[in-house]
Amino acid sequence: MAELHIIGHIVGASGFPQNSLFCKWGVHTGGAWRLLSGLKEGQTQVDIPQTGDVAYWSHPIDLHYATKGIQGWPKLHLQVWHQDSFGRCQLYGYGYCHVPSSPGHHRISCATWRPLGSWQEQLAQTFVGGGPQLRSPDLIYSGADRYRLHTEAMGTVDLELGVIMRHFDKYGVES
Amino acid sequence: MATSNPSAFLLTVNGQIEGANFPEYDNLYCKYCFVHGHDWTSTSGLEEGITQITCKGSQSSRKLIWNFPLETTFKSTSPSGWPQLVVSVYGPDVFGNDVVRGYGATHIPFTPGPHARTIPMFVPESTWRLQKFTSWLLGRRPEYTDPKVVAQGEGREVTRVRSQGFVTVSFHIMTKDMKKLGYDTGPASPANTQSATSGWSTEEQPINM
């Protein structure tokens, strides 16, 4: 069995309309993968930057997977939310990225998008907030049924992920 | 000493906590500790320590310099729970009380070679304005009872923090027997590796973020 370690952190986010952001993240894998240790989903703290507009989370990720096949390589999916001073939460973006498949340090910028409603919903959103959300988060990292969506671009989430691979070369996998 | 079938690998960290960039605060000192998983033990060097108190120089760069040495060696059977360096920065407030100015953590790099890291620092934030005022007045700011919490991912969902300032750290990493155990950590880092946050400062924000 080959093993994969994902060691890194979600650095922060920028380019969103307002600060006071947090991120819900998760890692999705195929059926051949087994999680040996670590948490495969979580939620960061809410960060309000003192200066500038980059929200920093530094949320650590430390995962250890064992696998029998390279199909279903891990994918990291993210939801960026905004929390205002009253504690109400509003969705600011969905995004996903594949975990890199070559060992070493990687810096990844994950772009995010938000579903767009009708013009009436957009008008209400500028005044009251809120907005449409996906009913099931699977659509963030899968391509099926995406053609039904109309979305707008939002900010970027930065990640630093390190990948350590073990025994992949014994099975003839080149990476 | 050399074994043909090692059961554990070693990680040697030589580095320094170079300094910090806090535009609003001065006269700061830093406490650091290493946090790691159950498979890891420290075989030599200190796992925690306190730096000196430093203030900004008269040069226009307004940097705080600690130049504090880090020399530790770890031993482990698995990369799970890879060590992290947790730093907490403290300084005096207007009334002279010692208050926390930031917590931060970064993973120790795992590729051999030189590395530079810029760690963003944050403080827990009170939600009530009245609580913010009384904690400013009495010098009792919200702080973590155990700074090692910063290295974990669980339990962060309900906390609100304010990020202010950065701490710069540099590492020189060596590993022993990782390849013999089958671990591939990728290419050794080139001479001038900068982390994604090293270009960020609180004075100017890069536009292409």
UniProtKB/TrEMBL annotation, chain A:
Protein name in the entry: B9 domain-containing protein 2
Pfam families reported in the protein's UniProt record: B9-C2
Gene name linked to the record: b9d2
Entry similarity comment: Belongs to the B9D family.
Gene Ontology process terms (BP): cilium assembly
PANTHER family: B9 DOMAIN-CONTAINING, B9 DOMAIN-CONTAINING PROTEIN 2
Tagged with keyword Cytoplasm: yes
PROSITE patterns: C2_B9
Major location category of this protein: cytoplasm
Role played: Component of the tectonic-like complex, a complex localized at the transition zone of primary cilia and acting as a barrier that prevents diffusion of transmembrane proteins between the cilia and plasma membranes.
Record's GO cellular component terms: MKS complex
Alphabetic keyword roster: Cell projection, Cilium biogenesis/degradation, Cytoplasm, Cytoskeleton
Subcellular location: Cytoplasm, Cytoskeleton, Cilium basal body
Residue ranges of the TM segments: none
UniProtKB/TrEMBL annotation, chain B:
Function: Component of the tectonic-like complex, a complex localized at the transition zone of primary cilia and acting as a barrier that prevents diffusion of transmembrane proteins between the cilia and plasma membranes. Required for ciliogenesis and sonic hedgehog/SHH signaling.
InterPro entries: C2_B9-type_dom (IPR010796)
Keyword annotations from UniProtKB, A to Z: Cell projection, Cilium biogenesis/degradation, Cytoplasm, Cytoskeleton
Family, as annotated: Belongs to the B9D family.
Biased composition (Polar residues): 190-209
GO biological process, one term: cilium assembly
Source organism: Scophthalmus maximus (Turbot)
Pfam family, one: B9-C2
Subunit annotation: Part of the tectonic-like complex (also named B9 complex).
Region (Disordered): 184-209
Primary residence: cytoplasm
GO CC annotations, alphabetized: MKS complex
Identification of the protein by name: B9 domain-containing protein 1
Localization terms from the record: Cytoplasm, Cytoskeleton, Cilium basal body
